[in-house]
Amino acid sequence: MSKHYLKAHLLLMAVAWIYGANYSIAKIILDPGLIAANGFILLRLLAGALLFILFFGLPKKVERSDWQALLFCAFTGVFANQLLFFNGLALTSPIHASLIMICTPIIVMLIRVVQGQTMNAIQWAGCFLGFGGAYLVIRSSYQTDGSGASLSGDLMVLLNALFFGLFLSKAPALISKYGSFELMKWLFLTAVLMCLPFGFTQLLHVRWEIMEEVHWLSLGFVLLCTTFLAYAFNAKALEYSHPGLVSNYIYLQPLIAAFIAVMLKKDHLSSWHLYSGLMIMTGVYLAGGKLPVGLEKYFPGVKKILFREQE
User: Fold this and answer.
1) Distance between CA 191 and CA 72 in Å, rounded?
2) What is the pTM of this model?
3) 16: closest CA among 232, 281, 252, 244?
4) Among candidates 84, 94, 96, which has minimal Cα distance to 143?
5) Which of 117, 199, 261, 267 is positioned for an S-S bond with 93, CB 3.0–4.6 A?
6) What tens digit of pLDDT does each residue of 186-219 get?
């Protein structure tokens, strides 16, 4: 393994732990209502914009022809993404949110189908299996198991995954033209303006004086690690490796999220989580066009049938 590839793995492992921990750590502030969700989002967007400008300089000029795509990405990938995620997380449990979020690669595949790309039989099976697992997660919200999950919260997180999938369908062209960090500056700055009407009043009413040390540490983690470092590490990992390796690390997030949520007593595991999580992760794996290891060996020709070349 090359040094660059090893660096990519280390960066992506750090990102997986940051995102996995974020589901529970953000709840430390959201659950007691110290900062309302929309105010929290505005604070995060402001911090992200300032940190990217502080570390990577003032944003450069964007061509007029790219503004429509940039506004689309700012709305889907930052503003709506954060608005739905944090409001949904405030109403559901960390494990529910992390399981639903890993449906994002399946949503990206379906968006590509709408745009004209074809899928084979195994990929369609993966999509159905993944969404079947997501349905089990959302269905379990009807049960009063004390997890703190709710139907409305789960649906917000699922809608958030849809918006992020739309963002991923447009962002690569802008990234290739302007670079990851340059795009992040504009996305966060633009999203701040979008979020002002929703979060400004809530941010003004935050009672900072009653926040304890654990709340300040949690807020610092979300603003610095989840908002800035995770984006920066992901971008750097892409320089050292390839998108396929980056996407593979999504499987770790629900495992880490579940571990941390149980350790912090923010959630508890149930059979619903295990069954639905297995379905979703298997569905994501198959939707990526991959066969289970050894299947071709014991069933010769199955790969040719399932992955037949499309005209």
Assistant:
1) 10
2) 0.77
3) 252
4) 96
5) 267
6) 999 999 999 999 999 999 988 898 999 999 999 9
